[in-house]
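User: I'm putting together a teaching handout on how sequence relates to shape, and I'd like one worked example. Could you take Lipoprotein from Pedobacter antarcticus 4BY, show the sequence you're using, and then write out its predicted structure as tokens right after it?

Assistant: Happy to. First the sequence, then the structure tokens directly below it.
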Amino acid sequence: MKKPNSLFICILIAFCIVFSSCRKDPSVIPSQEELVFPPNPSSTLKGMFILNEGNMNMNKASLDLIDFRTGKYQRNIYNQANPEVTRGLGDVGNDILVYGSKLYVIVNVSNKLEVLDAKTAKRIKQIDIVNCRYITFSEGKVYVSAYLGKVGDASATQGIVAQIDTTSLTIEKKVNVGRQPEEMAIVGRKLFVANSGGYSPPDYERTLSVIDLVSFKEIKRIDVAINLNRVKADRYGDLYVTSRGDYYDTPSKLFVIDTQKDAVKKVFDIAASNLWIDDDIAYLYASTWSYPLQKNTISYTMINVKDETVMDRKFINDGTEKEILVPYGINVNPYTKEVYVSDARDYVTPGKLYCFDPAGNKKWSVTTGDIPAHFAFIN
């Protein structure tokens, strides 16, 4: 019997090793750092976390940090702080919150809430919540909205809001709301959550669920419009709520809700994808898709929330809006009034974060992870 050639055996073993390594879980993205602007040691805020969603099913959610005092931008800090978590942060980072000493990160398709140390980004605990979406807080509790059903499941019925104790980091209570609940806001002792029904068009939901935080029960639903998404509270007790429309004949709009009467008090006939309210100004952008036109229409608007009027000024005034392909997140520094706008670009390669001064001129921009979308300041 002829013996196998030793060279052939070596080549075969090497091939098996390489093939085996290719079959492992995707490797995590390494951490990177760069200087974006000159140091400012007197900055009131220490910095800001940036949560990059990462495209669905690619396991590329990542966490970045910009240090306002050193001027340095750090990419993928979760991976650096948690090397033992072999698959990194997970699949689709959907919301982020700093509350107390902890950083909370919603990872939607990975069905989890990551609880991290806000100083080190080191994991404290993972809390499993199926198809979780957004997070908010009040009086020692954090609240998480969740679809519950699998991603894209049109048969999914009610979603929930879960109450989590920030000391024990356990889910204490759950309350049923509408289908595919999205963003939340708290005014007084009431929590408001936008029900979208986004998995079953054209049978969208069209209500805000109102939850009494004392009893933790849904006490009513406010009829607003189809396919609700964002909910932001101003300092006058009103909510600003976005409707995405149906992407065909029903356009996106912005609604103002009186939380004393639990009713719509005003409608702005302008498209709105996301917004941030700082003092008396709401900064918003729209990136609205139209199936008939097969394109996005992009706009930027400022609203005076005190008198509820659209302002005749913009927060980007130097032409930089032409560089931004897909605005995907917005935030405002409460001390400097700088406006941060993120660009998802093509959704599969690194995005960008832009900083604009109060006059609307670009101060700096930096490359982020894939689909930068959510922000949280750190003091």
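A couple of points you could highlight for students: Residues 135 and 144 are 5 Å apart (CA to CA). Confidence is low (pLDDT under 50) at residues 1-26.
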